[in-house]
Amino acid sequence: MNRTLLLVDDEASILHALVRLFHSEGYNLLTANSGEEALRLLANNEVQVVLSDQRMPQMTGVELLAKVKDLYPDSVRMVLSGYAEITAVTDAVNKGNIYKFLFKPWDNDLLRANVREAFDRFDLTQQGAQFSKIYENTVEGIIIADHGTLIRAVNPAFSIITGYAPEEVIGKTPALLKSGNHDKAFYQEMWSALEQHGKWTGEIWNKRKSGEIYPEWLNITVIRDSQGSVSQYVALFSDITEHKRNEERLRYQAYHDGLTDLPNRLMFGENLELTIAQAERTGQQAAILLMDLDHFKFVNDTLGHDHGDKLLLAVAERLKATLRKGDTLARMGGDEFTLLLPQIKDTDEIAAVIKKIVTNLTTPFRVGDDELTVTASIGISSYPQDGTTPEELLKNADSALYQAKEAGRNTYIFFTAAMTARAKERIVVENELRHALSSGEIEVFYQPKMRIRDQRITGMEALVRWNHPSRGLVGPKDFIAIAEETGQIIPLGKLVLEEACRQTVEWHRQGWDKLRVAVNLSAYQFRDEGLFDAITHILEQTGIDPHLLEIELTESVVMHDAEASIELLLMLKRMGIGLAIDDFGTGYSSLSYLKRLPFDTLKVDQSFVRDVTTDHHSAELVRTIIGMAHGFKLEVIAEGVETQEQLDFLRKHDCDVIQGYLLAKPLTAREFKLLLGARPEP
Ligand code: C2E
Ligand code: MG
Ligand code: MG
Which residue puts its alpha carbon closest to atom 10 of ligand 1? Predict the structure, then answer.
């Protein structure tokens, strides 16, 4: 802090003495031997305290200090002079131009103390000025009340917040702001806090002059005098109306879905908890419906998110129309909605609600230029049969929903205990499969294929088996689907492909060097971005001739994303790998479409082959397929040939190759080699 003391006296010896006196006080000292010189110094220096002689030749001390006051109004000005000058100075003291009159000759300690006090005074006025600035300009309301709680002063912010002018409240008690929102106990607690701790802080509702009730954050401090009795209460408060509004808005946002404005997952969870607690007390039943729009992803992907959002909004509106009093409809995210029915008598009542939902969704939706039909799959779980906690109920509704989707969508399914068993089973299989992949439990079996014309074995299909430690040999139907859902199909598929190639190369080296191995790829593998690299890598690693490797794909795999599929198929084809279409006849594709795809082989599904000798239709179909396939230059394999009659039929109608139990079941590598040894070479 700057502490400059200006000393003015026309007698050099006095100035000297004063400088010596204040030398050790740490002030910044300025000296002048006349009023004029003092003013010159003041033009370039800011001073806080001036100590001046009165009687000087051109300008008296009083005259000088009056000018100093103009320059530095906050400065503390004192005269140091003989007693004889007292009358000349008194007037100036009264006018406020001079703070104090000090006498010559002086007492050293007293003079030092007086100057120190002058600097303190300067500091105080500065702080006071700052305080009153704050008092005047702060946005917080301030009330100063006396020991009897009568209001003595209020600041402008008080008037802005409450609407009362100072003169309307001064002399009254703050009770005139009471809203009536708080009970006696509230104020009693406030007063006891003030008595005990000297302050109170908290939220309080007060009333403006207009009558409007508003929330404020209030801080009251008790000021006590040196004897310890209350002299003042100072209350500082801010209007938190806006803050509260924001809080409410945030709370609303936290509990609602931004798009549809419906309750969100969080609020649904809390409502569900309340519902359960209530149902527990009253012994009532409750139900939750978990809904998922069918093929919504398709809308989003093809029409864009904008349209997707519009559709969701429209669906939400229609679902709202099915609500009964007390029901909660929530959006859980994406295209998933939940309906909470807190009071249910029986399943008929649930079915009635579902019927209403389904009916409401039947009319197509108009989104932009498009008319869209929306169906939903619904899974239902009920309290208390299907669960007594929100987690359980939601999980089970989800299992039921999953089943509804599996069942072909646009349907609703009630949860059953069997579903949990299935879900548990899936988790067990998933974990065991992870282990199986690294512990050699996965084996590859080989089922031979025979050319009808010369009865030679041309190759074999690699079929995966899981040699489970306790369940024995497990077929692909029991674990491929789970492997697909969990992503384990990728490492599993690689393992099979690698082993099949390795084994085939070994047989090639042993002399059966024209054997072709066929490996199945599932849709998930086919869509995996790493597929091409994985195949390339395995070809290099095992050294198999790509022409002796064939990949089997079902129609649906290829049809799923036809354009992208063609790319990949062509890439494989260019490497020399053969492509077979598996289970032909069970999908939707037409032969004429398939001819655009680079397949070499068509495998007629066993369901047709099974019936060729007994069912006229199947026979006709198989004949047609063979004929058309040959027209497209495709080799035809008949799957699942079990009887000689079937083989005779197929030979008669020019089928190229057969595969089936008639020839052999899928065999271990050892068994397959024995079979090869027992037959003529290809
Ligand atoms: P798929 O590719 O159509 O394989 C033919 C299925 O028919 C095999 O069943 C085979 O054992 C069975 N089969 C063969 N001949 C006859 C017969 O004369 N009569 C009867 N009733 N069935 C016969 P499997 O091994 O249970 O495989 C089932 C399906 O699992 C396969 O159908 C294939 O789609 C899939 N799969 C098998 N191995 C793999 C694999 O390594 N990866 C992938 N992604 N899928 C595989
Ligand atoms: Mg196959
Ligand atoms: Mg097949």
Answer: 666
pLDDT at 561: 67
Which residue ranges in the chain fall short of pLDDT 70? 1, 559-562, 587-593, 680-682
| Residue 408: per-residue pLDDT | 74
For residue 105, cis peptide bond before it (omega within 30 degrees of 0): yes
Residue nearest ligand 1's atom 3 by CA: 583
CB of 585 closer than 6 A to ligand 1? no
Is the Cβ atom of 476 under 6 angstroms away from ligand 1?
A: yes
Q: Is the CB of 442 under 6 A from ligand 1?
A: no
463 Cα to the center of ligand 1, angstroms: 6
CA distance 586 to 621: 12
Q: Which fold has domain 4-135?
A: Rossmann fold (3.40.50)
Distance 69 CA to ligand 1 centre (A): 108
pLDDT value of position 590: 61
Contact 422, 396 (CB under 8 A): no
Element housing 80 (H / E): strand 76-81
The ligand with the least distance to the CA atom of 603 is 3
Task: State the amino acid at position 631 in one-letter form.
Answer: G
Name the residue of 520, 556, 601, 658 to mutate for ligand 1: max ligand atoms within 8 A of Cβ.
Answer: 520
CATH 3.40.50.2300 spans which residues of the chain? 4-135
Tell me the best of 463, 526, 554 to mutate to test the pocket of ligand 1, counting ligand atoms within 8 Å of each CB and taking the most: 463
pTM: 0.53
**What secondary structure does DSSP assign to 340-405, as a single string?**
EEEEES-HHHHHHHHHHHHHHHHSPEEETTEEE---EEEEEEEETTT-SSHHHHHHHHHHHHHHHH
**What is the assigned CATH class of domain 138-244?**
alpha beta
- CATH of span 428-676: 3.20.20.450
**pLDDT value of position 678:** 79
pLDDT at 589: 57
At 570 the pLDDT is: 93
Predicted pLDDT at 592: 65
Q: What is the pLDDT of residue 235?
A: 94
pLDDT for the residue numbered 1: 66
CB 294 within 8 A of CB 375: yes
Q: Distance from the CA of 605 to the center of ligand 3, in angstroms?
A: 6
Does the Cβ of 520 fall within 6 Å of ligand 1?
A: yes
The architecture of the domain spanning 256-415 is 2-Layer Sandwich (3.30)
- Ligand 2 centre from 552 Cα, in Å? 6
